[in-house]
């Protein structure tokens, strides 16, 4: 097990290097340091001297990947990529192009993202599994048929419809909760409940269809027929045997989705004005703040790799037949 974990961590290093290079290349294909300076300083009446000063203060006056004028290893270290991206491997996020401490911002903004994403994950998982088991229990009946139709309908509706409709109905017409904003402490629930409910509803269709397929696949296996032959009731077979053996694909979706708890939901946080990491990333993209964008992409990659590693380890806990080697 330990050898497997170490090997997976070593595999992650070239993946993170590739992600860093790709993010760097994509960003600077679209933007130049001059464009970034104009965006930060204001598009109107920006002098060339002000642009050069901004670039020098933030280290964007150097070559991107290779410095032909430097000597020795400085050809590679005295570059924008080395100074801005390589330090991420020791989790030194540095400062944003606007001068803010990125590590401090991440520490502050991860909690609102967690407060919104955690109920969406837990309640959504419980809801999806419950209704999926109900549909599987009444398989090949009108309950199953109309359940699939409803799921497909919910999947076909854009998530923006749920957000805008929920804000208008619950926030503007009924005045039950604020439309946007966030407060920490005991009053946070007023700002979190609406985006959490919308996040759960928008994922019900795809979640139920996924778990329904998993349960139906398990129901058709030999051990289920053996359990029925022994006289076990259908509900006991479903809840005691099928659910237990379906935990492997369920864990795949749950553990792999854990990074979203910390990275936040880009659309929900932006529309509801929640100061989480999702809106933090969107604002950085709009402002063309490369320092924040690269930090968030790197952090998301690390969390996703850890999620996949936890997924593999969790397989051995729910299914002793799985061996990691």
Describe, in plain words, how this protein is organized in 3D.
- The chain has 325 residues and is an all-alpha fold.
- It folds into two domains: 89 residues, no CATH class; 217 residues, MetI-like fold, CATH 1.10.3720.
- The chain contains 16 helices and no strands.
- α1 runs antiparallel to α16, α2 crosses α3 and α8 runs antiparallel to α9.
- The longest helix has 36 residues.
Key structural traits:
325 residues; mainly alpha; MetI-like fold; 2 domains; 16 helices; 0% strand; globular
Strand and helix layout:
Elements: H1 2-30, H2 33-41, H3 48-58, H4 74-77, H5 80-85, H6 102-137, H7 142-156, H8 159-173, H9 188-219, H10 222-229, H11 234-245, H12 247-256, H13 259-263, H14 266-272, H15 277-287, H16 290-318
Helix pairs in contact: 1-16, 2-3, 6-9, 7-9, 8-9, 12-16, 14-15, 15-16
Summary of the model, kept short:
By secondary structure, the protein is mostly helical. The chain has 16 helices and no strands.
Mean pLDDT value: 84
Characterize the quaternary organization of these chains.
single chain
CATH architectural group of the largest domain: Orthogonal Bundle
Largest sheet at a glance? none
Shape: globular
Q: What's the helical proportion of residues?
A: over 70%
Round the Cα radius of gyration to an integer and report it: 25 Å
The total of beta strands comes to 0
Query: How far apart are the termini?
Result: 7 Å
What would you call the structural class? mainly alpha
The H/E string reads HHHHHHHHHHHHHHHH
Number of helices: 16
Kindly report the name of the CATH homologous superfamily of the largest domain: MetI-like
Please tell me the total number of domains.
Answer: 2
CATH fold descriptor of the largest domain: MetI-like fold
Low-confidence stretches: none
């Amino acid at each position: 097990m330990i050898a497997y974990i170490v090997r997976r961590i070593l595999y992650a290093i070239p993946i993170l290097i590739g992600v860093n290079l790709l993010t760097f290349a994509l960003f600077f294909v679209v933007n130049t340091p001059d464009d970034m300076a104009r965006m930060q300083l204001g598009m109107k009446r920006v002098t060339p001297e002000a642009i050069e000063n901004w670039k020098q203060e933030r280290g964007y006056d150097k070559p991107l990947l290779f410095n032909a004028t430097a000597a020795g290893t400085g050809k590679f270290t005295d570059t924008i990529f080395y100074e801005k991206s390589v330090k991420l491997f020791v989790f030194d996020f540095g400062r944003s192009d606007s001068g803010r401490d990125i590590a401090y911002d991440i520490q502050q903004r991860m909690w609102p993202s967690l407060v919104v994403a955690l109920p969406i994950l837990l309640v959504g998982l419980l809801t999806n599994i419950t209704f999926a088991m109900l549909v599987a229990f009444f398989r090949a009946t009108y309950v199953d048929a109309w359940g699939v139709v409803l799921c497909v309908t919910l999947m076909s509706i854009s998530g923006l419809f749920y957000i805008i409709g929920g804000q208008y109905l619950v926030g503007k017409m009924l005045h039950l909760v604020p439309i946007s904003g966030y407060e920490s402490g005991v009053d946070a629930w007023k700002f979190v409940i609406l985006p959490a409910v919308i996040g759960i509803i928008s994922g019900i269709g795809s979640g139920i269809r996924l778990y329904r397929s998993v349960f139906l696949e398990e129901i058709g296996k030999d051990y289920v027929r053996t359990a029925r032959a022994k006289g076990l009731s259908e509900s006991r077979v479903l809840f005691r045997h099928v659910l237990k053996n379906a935990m492997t694909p369920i864990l795949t979706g749950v553990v792999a989705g854990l990074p979203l708890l910390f990275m936040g939901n880009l659309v929900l946080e932006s529309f509801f004005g929640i100061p989480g990491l999702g809106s933090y990333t969107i604002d950085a993209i709009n402002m063309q703040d490369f320092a924040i964008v690269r930090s968030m992409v790197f952090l998301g990659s690390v969390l996703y790799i850890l999620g996949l590693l936890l997924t593999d380890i969790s397989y051995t806990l729910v299914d002793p037949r799985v061996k990691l080697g």
